């Protein structure tokens, strides 16, 4: 019990005072990584008429906007990985949610709120069912969510008739309510896109939630040592179901954001997004073995990937080399994890 | 590796095949906001951003290569390439990055129309001339569209099968592209029209091979079992036709039937070589438009001119009679 709690506390931001300087450095590796990549991006940024293109307001807005979907998914993924699981279905759930929003609003003429609520519910239930399959039947989450990926993709294709559903806005039939379009708009001086605000709210809510709730301790306990957690009275099954439900809900939210940004819900949306989300979590310093990591790290990890993508693209680095560089960054982040001292 | 193909020869053959169906155009885009602003004439230096939907398909890789090759002949041009890897969201970001870089002209082959429309309009509204290749975007916020006519290509293939391969009739199976994809629907529509002239030609079965060689092979396995007599396999692209050939060969029936494809890429693994080597009876070119895109860019940026709003390129029938010749023309340096 004490062992589990120590581990849990050390991993939460609250337990920081007991950690050494080295441990702190490792804990915030993704933040330092982000700062380093950001500085490098400024240095290597192309310039035009004396302006550093990378730090132009428009470009930075583009970077965070491009990151927001993966970021939202990655927050949910952090929870799942913290309990030692994995969720491979998030990209497909994003596709299902994007299709769902488009079909409900455009083809079924549903209002904004009922559509969004139903789509979020679908994600929540889908995630919860995956949680039940892992926690109660005892199938590994890798397998459950691999199946979930196929099922969600299949459902998305059936629901959309195999084709992208275009979203037009207006009050007429076969048009989505204009209130939905607002989700993709820009705000705050026309600069910060709403998807970025949604990502920020999700991330802050997750950080606060992990700090104040008892659920947080359960989460780290299950990830640290499931057997010990069970013996010490942690409701392991309930925690697992809740975690997968949250992950499904957030993937679904990302799908809604995706649909509004692209004016379309396509059943093939989000292919490979699960891998980007996992990469963000790993770069963020969360251990794939579970029990250690933080949402803040994941947010920094997602932003790091976004800045990296942006600066490589701004310099027109060949797309094959881009893949190579991103792969090396992920390996480097994982390698740093191995060096990290255990508290 | 390859310089510009001989336009005269290509046009001549195309004219023979098409009998009058050549380049068509709607209205010219005199009011393009980009054209006047970006043109600094022959003394200028221009950065062109090319946003490709994906380079996993050989057709799209060839499009990039054709652009690269054609741009080498225009010393003022520096062309950048981005690969969206079939992800609409990534392609939107790619175009936004080009806007940030303040490129002088955008060439884009969109992954899908609807999701890319807004960002293409954004570039166009900022005064960047936009040339859209192969797949369209919605609305008219672009400088020019250059593409092939899939209905026309399907029609040519249908006519060829009805008149040349099966003049006295026979059984045809159709291997279709990815369900829901526009080219798939258009090629099918044209094909059905094309074979109408010969009522003795019967389409006895159809299956979707998703544009993929291995899927085409698997579908053909099943079609061969279900249909004892197949005379022609009409495939919506060359890779699926090759897959079908392999399936027939595996059961020793490849000599009983003829195979046709579409795309006719002038690359070693492409359809023209397959015709030359006798696996396919014919294939029909679906132009990559890379060379034409650079010509249009030159017109806008260097010559300060305007381009046609829509430029539809003709198809060409490749069979045993011209395969070797066309391949050599397309790859003059070997």
From TrEMBL, chain A:
Q: Which InterPro entries does this one have?
A: ABC_transp_permease
Q: Which UniProt keywords apply?
A: Cell membrane, Membrane, Transmembrane, Transmembrane helix
* Record field: transmembrane: 26-45, 66-83, 118-139, 188-210, 239-259, 295-315
How this chain sits in the membrane, per its record, is: Multi-pass membrane protein
Leader peptide range in chain numbering: none
MF terms per GO, please? transmembrane transporter activity
Where in or outside the cell?
A: Cell membrane
**Main localization of the protein described in the UniProt heading:** membrane
Q: Does the keyword Membrane apply?
A: yes
One GO cellular component, as annotated: plasma membrane
Q: Does the keyword Transmembrane apply?
A: yes
Q: Name one Pfam family in it.
A: BPD_transp_2
Specify the protein name: Ribose transport system permease protein
Could you tell me which species this protein originates from? Kribbella solani
UniProtKB/TrEMBL annotation, chain B:
Presence of the UniProt keyword Signal in the record: yes
- Subcellular compartments: Cell envelope
Q: Signal among the record's keywords? A: yes
Q: What is its main location?
A: other
UniProt GO molecular function: carbohydrate binding
Give start-end of the signal peptide: 1-19
Keywords on record? Signal
Q: Which residues form the Periplasmic binding protein domain?
A: 48-301
Q: Which InterPro entries match?
A: Peripla_BP_I (IPR028082), SBP_2_dom (IPR025997)
Annotated Gene Ontology cellular component terms = cell envelope
What the entry lists under PANTHER family is as follows: D-ALLOSE-BINDING PERIPLASMIC PROTEIN-RELATED
Q: Which family does it belong to?
A: Belongs to the bacterial solute-binding protein 2 family.
Kindly provide the name given to this protein in its UniProt entry.
Ribose transport system substrate-binding protein
| UniProt lineage | Bacteria, Bacillati, Actinomycetota, Actinomycetes, Propionibacteriales
């Amino acid at each position: 019990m004490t062992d589990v709690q120590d581990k849990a506390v050390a991993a939460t931001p609250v337990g920081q005072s007991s950690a050494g300087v080295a441990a702190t450095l490792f804990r915030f590796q993704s933040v330092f990584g982000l700062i380093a990549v950001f500085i490098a991006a400024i240095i290597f940024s192309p310039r035009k008429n004396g302006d550093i293109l990378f730090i132009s307001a428009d470009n930075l807005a583009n970077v965070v906007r491009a990151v927001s979907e993966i970021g939202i998914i990655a927050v949910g993924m952090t929870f799942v990985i913290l309990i030692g699981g994995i969720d491979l279905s998030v990209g497909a759930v994003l596709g299902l949610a994007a299709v769902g929003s488009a079909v409900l609003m455009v083809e079924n003429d549903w209002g904004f709120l009922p559509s969004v609520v139903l789509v979020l519910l679908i994600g929540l239930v889908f995630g919860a069912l995956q949680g039940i399959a892992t926690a109660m039947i005892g199938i590994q989450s890798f397998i459950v969510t691999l199946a979930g990926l196929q099922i969600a993709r299949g459902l998305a294709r059936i629901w959309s008739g195999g084709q992208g559903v275009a979203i037009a806005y207006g009050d007429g039939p076969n048009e989505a309510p204009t209130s939905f379009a607002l989700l993709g708009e820009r705000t705050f001086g026309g600069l910060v896109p709403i998807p970025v605000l949604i990502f920020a709210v999700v991330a802050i809510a997750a950080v606060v939630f992990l700090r104040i709730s008892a659920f947080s301790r359960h989460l780290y306990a299950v990830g640290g040592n499931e057997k010990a957690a069970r013996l010490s009275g942690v409701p392991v099954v309930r925690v697992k179901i809740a975690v997968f439900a949250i992950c499904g809900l957030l993937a679904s939210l990302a799908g809604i954001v995706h649909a509004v940004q692209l004016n379309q819900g396509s059943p093939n949306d989000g292919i490979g997004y699960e891998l980007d989300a996992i990469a963000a979590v790993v770069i963020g310093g969360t251990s794939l073995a579970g029990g250690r990591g933080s949402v803040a790290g994941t947010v920094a990890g997602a932003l790091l990937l976004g800045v990296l993508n942006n600066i490589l693209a701004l310099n027109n680095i060949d797309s094959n080399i881009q893949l190579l560089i991103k792969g090396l960054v992920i390996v480097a982040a994982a390698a740093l994890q191995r060096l990290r001292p255990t508290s | 590796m390859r310089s510009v193909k001989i336009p005269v020869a290509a046009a001549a053959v195309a004219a023979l095949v098409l009998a009058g169906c050549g380049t068509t155009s709607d209205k010219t885009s005199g009011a393009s906001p980009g054209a006047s602003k970006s043109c600094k004439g022959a003394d200028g230096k221009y950065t062109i951003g090319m946003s490709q939907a994906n380079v996993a398909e050989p057709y799209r890789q060839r499009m990039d290569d054709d652009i690269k090759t054609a741009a080498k002949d225009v010393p003022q041009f520096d062309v950048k390439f981005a690969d969206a890897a079939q992800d609409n969201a990534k392609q939107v970001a790619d175009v936004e990055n080009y806007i940030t870089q303040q490129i002088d002209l955008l060439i884009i082959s969109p992954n899908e129309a609807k999701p890319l429309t807004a960002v293409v309009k954004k570039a166009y509204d900022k005064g960047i001339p936009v040339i859209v290749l192969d797949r369209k975007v919605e609305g008219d916020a672009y400088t020019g569209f250059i593409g092939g006519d899939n209905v026309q290509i399907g029609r040519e293939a249908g006519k060829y099968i009805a008149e040349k391969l099966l003049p006295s009739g026979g059984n045809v199976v159709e291997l279709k592209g990815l369900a829901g994809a526009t080219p798939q629907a258009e090629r099918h529509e044209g094909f059905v029209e094309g074979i109408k002239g010969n009522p003795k030609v019967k389409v006895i079965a159809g299956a979707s091979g998703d544009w993929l060689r291995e899927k085409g092979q698997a579908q053909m396995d099943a079609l061969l079992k279900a249909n004892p007599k197949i005379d022609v396999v009409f495939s919506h692209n060359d890779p699926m036709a090759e897959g079908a050939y392999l399936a027939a060969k595996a059961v020793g029936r490849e000599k009983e039937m003829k195979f046709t494809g579409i795309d006719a890429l002038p690359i070693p693994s492409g359809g023209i070589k397959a015709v030359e080597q006798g696996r396919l009876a014919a294939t029909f070119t679906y132009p990559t438009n890379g060379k034409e895109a650079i010509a249009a860019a030159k017109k806008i940026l260097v010559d300060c001119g305007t381009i046609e709003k829509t430029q539809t390129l003709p198809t060409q029938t490749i069979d045993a009679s011209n395969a070797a010749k066309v391949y050599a023309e397309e790859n003059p340096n070997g």
